[in-house]
């Protein structure tokens, strides 16, 4: 038995409930049933199995197709399990370019950091890739083709975002005690952080992928924020249980959780990141790309060539950190297109 498995509680051939295993095995010697697994009950009711199976046993792996179909039928009818037919028809996109590189790292590592000088589209590509993958995963189409209601399902649910900063801590990311007023008195309540909530939602929906974008990941104290996550973040350690120090509860990172961090190298070099963290992430460097400005000319100034010349001057004169201090092409974009007025160009300068 493993986390994510479906289980049925039954009395003989009478099924009383269907649930999903959400935690590791535990032994409680004082309990009437000492061998335990935490379960989230998805369906409660009564029905009789179509065929006899597993008689005279306490725990048994159901194998007869008619019995398995009867279980899935009830979950599908209640919207608790996606139709297997729908899943087989759902296309798996093979992205290209920068999104394709991110997708390849997801398959290999499960988490990626986009790094480079400011204005090179790091946050844009993080959002674009996550929204695209989540849209195909949920609705089998591109994010641009979704209705407003479908976009709400993706943006803020399947794809979420936080920003690291010097005051961001373990309690914001994992769990921590927060002050609350209860009956006129101040009390401290243990509350889940953004990453723990994401993992809990992903565990309840194993058929979907969940994405967390961490903007400015290098501006926070990463070892303090991540805490125990460094142990179980690696893809081959997903599903391995750790004990959270505050709640004293066992916790695992589901395989359908993916992280995208963005990192401005003008503030801090990637070489300064914790080596344990660097080993667990894949990296994609994003540099100034003048090709997005091709054909744009303002008052006789070709923007693409001008940007290349400016960055070449920076690299020639600044010295060792010049590569990370170049000017990104996004500075010269307005609503995704090259700036069109000279006054706007002057304000950018």
List the helices and strands and how they pair.
Blueprint: E1 6-11, E2 14-21, E3 26-27, E4 35-36, E5 39-48, H1 65-77, H2 84-89, H3 97-108, E6 111-116, H4 122-139, H5 148-154, E7 159-163, H6 170-173, E8 175-182, E9 185-192, H7 194-204, E10 210-215, H8 222-226, H9 229-232, E11 242-243, E12 250-251, E13 257-264, H10 275-280, E14 282-285, E15 297-298, E16 301-302, H11 303-317, E17 333-334, E18 337-338, H12 342-348
What does it look like?
- The chain is an alpha/beta fold and 349 residues long.
- The protein contains twelve helices and 18 strands.
- The protein folds into three domains: 6-81, no CATH class; 93-285, P-loop containing nucleotide triphosphate hydrolases (Rossmann fold), CATH 3.40.50.300; 290-348, no CATH class.
- It has helices spanning 65-77, 84-89, 97-108, 122-139, 148-154, 170-173, 194-204, 222-226, 229-232, 275-280, 303-317, 342-348; strands at 6-11, 14-21, 26-27, 35-36, 39-48, 111-116, 159-163, 175-182, 185-192, 210-215, 242-243, 250-251, 257-264, 282-285, 297-298, 301-302, 333-334, 337-338.
- The chain has a five-stranded parallel beta sheet, with helices on both faces. Strands 1-2-5 form a three-stranded antiparallel beta sheet, with helices on one face.
- A hairpin with a 7-residue loop joins strand 3 (26-27) and strand 4.
- Helix 3 packs across helix 4.
- The longest helix is centred in the middle third of the chain and has 18 residues, at 122-139.
- It is elongated.
């Amino acid at each position: 038995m493993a986390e994510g498995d479906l289980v049925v509680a039954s009395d003989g051939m009478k099924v009383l409930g269907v649930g999903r295993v959400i935690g590791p095995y535990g032994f409680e010697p004082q309990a009437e049933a000492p061998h335990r697994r935490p379960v989230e009950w998805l369906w409660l009711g009564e029905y009789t199995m179509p065929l006899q199976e597993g008689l005279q046993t306490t725990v048994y792996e159901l194998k007869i197709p008619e019995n398995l179909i009867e279980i899935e039928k009830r979950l599908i009818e209640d919207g608790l399990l996606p139709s297997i037919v729908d899943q087989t028809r759902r296309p798996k996109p093979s992205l290209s370019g920068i999104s394709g590189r991110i997708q390849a790292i997801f398959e290999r590592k499960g988490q990626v950091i986009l790094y480079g000088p400011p204005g090179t589209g790091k946050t844009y590509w993080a959002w674009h890739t996550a929204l695209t993958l989540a849209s195909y995963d949920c609705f089998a189409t591109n994010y641009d083709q979704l209705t407003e209601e479908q976009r709400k399902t993706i943006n803020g649910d399947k794809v979420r975002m936080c920003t690291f900063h010097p005051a961001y801590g373990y309690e914001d990311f994992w769990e921590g005690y927060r002050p609350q007023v209860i009956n006129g008195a101040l009390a401290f309540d243990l509350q889940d952080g953004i990453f723990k909530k994401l993992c809990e939602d992903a565990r309840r929906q194993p058929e979907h992928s969940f994405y967390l974008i961490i903007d400015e990941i290098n501006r926070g104290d990463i070892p303090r924020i991540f805490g125990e996550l460094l142990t179980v973040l690696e893809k081959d350690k997903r599903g391995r249980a750790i004990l959270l120090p505050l709640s004293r509860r066992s916790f695992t990172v589901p395989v359908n959780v993916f992280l995208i961090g963005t990192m401005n190298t003008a503030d801090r070099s990637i070489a300064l990141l914790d080596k344990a963290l660097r080993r667990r992430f894949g990296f994609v460097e994003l540099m100034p790309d003048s090709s997005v400005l091709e054909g744009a000319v303002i008052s006789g100034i070709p923007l693409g060539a001008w940007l290349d010349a400016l960055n070449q001057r920076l690299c020639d004169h600044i010295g060792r950190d010049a590569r990370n201090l170049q000017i990104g092409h996004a500075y010269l974009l307005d609503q995704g297109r090259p700036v069109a007025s000279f006054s706007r160009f002057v304000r950018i300068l």
